[in-house]
Amino acid sequence: MNSQRLALKYGRKAIQARLTRGHKPKTLLPPPREAGDNGPAIIRNALANPIESPRLSDIVTAGDKVVVVASDCTRMTASDVFLPLLVDDLNRAGIPDRDIAIVIALGIHRSQTEEEHRSLLGDALYTRIRPVDHDARDSGNLVFYGTTSRGTEVAVNRIVAEADKVVLTGAVSPHYFAGFGGGRKSVMPGVCSLKANLQSHLLVFNPSPQRGRNPAVRVARLAGNPVHEDMLEAARMVSPHFMLNTIVGTDKNILAAFAGNPIAAHEAACKHYLENFAVAVTVRADLTIVSCGGYPKDVNFIQAHKAIHTAYSVTKPGGWMIVLAACSDGFGYPGFLEWFQFDTAAEFEESLRANYEIYGQTAYATFEKATSVNIVLVSELEPAHVQQMNMRTAATFEEAYHLATKNLPVDFETYVIPDGASTLFLTTDEYTASFESITGERESEAREIS
């Protein structure tokens, strides 16, 4: 092939990548994401046209205590745009600010700073309503609802449990084991107990005495995915009254919004995402080169894992991946590297089942990938730490490219993914299965890259 030059984001700069071997590389890009109308107009239209539900203003009644559940700062939802509009809707329906609580669905994330609270609500709304962070470890402020069919003991934030009306908000984006974010995740893990969170997350594994990852637990998969179905069962116990979810672009603009019945509206949002923002590829590549999209998407390794998962989905077993992820803030969690002390996935799984941690699950997923494909990581991490994760390390792209290509046949196929953290690529079979898991129907036409 003739050489090809590409500029790929890495941290706060761009790396010049020169590709000289194999077949001509295919650059995998998402479909154009046109915002169309402005964000507030998209939100107003969604609220005015709810899916399988009355309008919010027809659900609430003067005197109701209303709780709005909102995501924390780790999720890009555009809540500073939609929360003021949602509260305005409630005000017009006779619900004053004093009867509205905004609970931040932290799951087991850290508490938010005052600045983060302000950014989530917007300056004007923050001066009127002060949000409350959910605390999954505060047993005195949790109300037990019951146990799911899979054994998860559902205890929920007391403010949410004692509300007359509950409104869920958030954003829909791919999630590597829950299928998609948004919807029921505002309840589980968002406002549930630590114990419930851990029990639900353990459903990534096959039930005992079987071992290994449950094959139905995967990105963009809903029906049949036990993690999704357990979260949905928990949300049904709480029986939220209304939902508003956005789909947000890489520049934080609102691309679409879905409101109404918490189950039907969420499924509609997931279907819309799959149809409009996912791309199917017909074959897996021998070599996949992926950038996270630069800072802050590659600020730490845990954030970079999203791009690694995207590239892994379209790379042949035993193939090669070159990952550009600066990781200027290290791993993103103090104990993350300590999980890489096992020689086999079975040993890793046994330890994780016995002492589950959320980021231990990310470490396990990383271990699975690094032992089934060859990953070369270009980063600021210590080389010894990269090797401990069963990956190869390279100081430059050129070094990584040489290392990968010398182990591939002459006619190898290459994919280049410039923004792996913000894009969903699936094989054609996976795309079809994902569509069926959302709609129960076969999709008619996938966006394909041959």
The tally of helices reads 15
How many structural domains in the coordinates? 2
| Rounded mean pLDDT score | 92
Helix content: 25-40%
- How much of the polypeptide forms β-strand, as a percent range? 15-25%
CATH architecture classification of the largest domain: 3-Layer(aba) Sandwich
Largest sheet: 6 strands, parallel
Could you say which structural class the secondary elements and strand pairing correspond to? alpha/beta
Protein name: Nickel-dependent lactate racemase
GO molecular function, one term: lactate racemase activity
InterPro entries: LarA-like, LarA-like_C, LarA-like_N, LarA_C, Ni_dep_LarA
Task: Write structural notes for this entry.
By secondary structure, this protein is an alpha/beta fold. The protein folds into two domains: 4-30 and 282-428 and 436-449, 2-enoyl-CoA Hydratase, Chain A, domain 1 (Alpha-Beta Complex), CATH 3.90.226; 39-276, 3-Layer(aba) Sandwich (Rossmann fold), CATH 3.40.50. It contains 15 helices and 21 strands. The protein has helices at residues 39-48, 56-59, 79-92, 114-121, 123-126, 158-161, 194-201, 226-238, 262-277, 301-313, 345-354, 358-370, 383-388, 397-405, 428-439, and strands at residues 4-10, 13-19, 26-27, 66-71, 100-105, 132-133, 142-147, 153-157, 165-171, 174-175, 179-180, 242-248, 254-260, 278-281, 285-291, 315-324, 374-378, 392-394, 414-417, 424-427, 448-449. The chain has a six-stranded parallel β-sheet, sandwiched between helices. A six-stranded mixed β-sheet has the order 6-5-4-9-12-13, with helices on both faces. Residues 442-450 have low confidence and may be disordered.
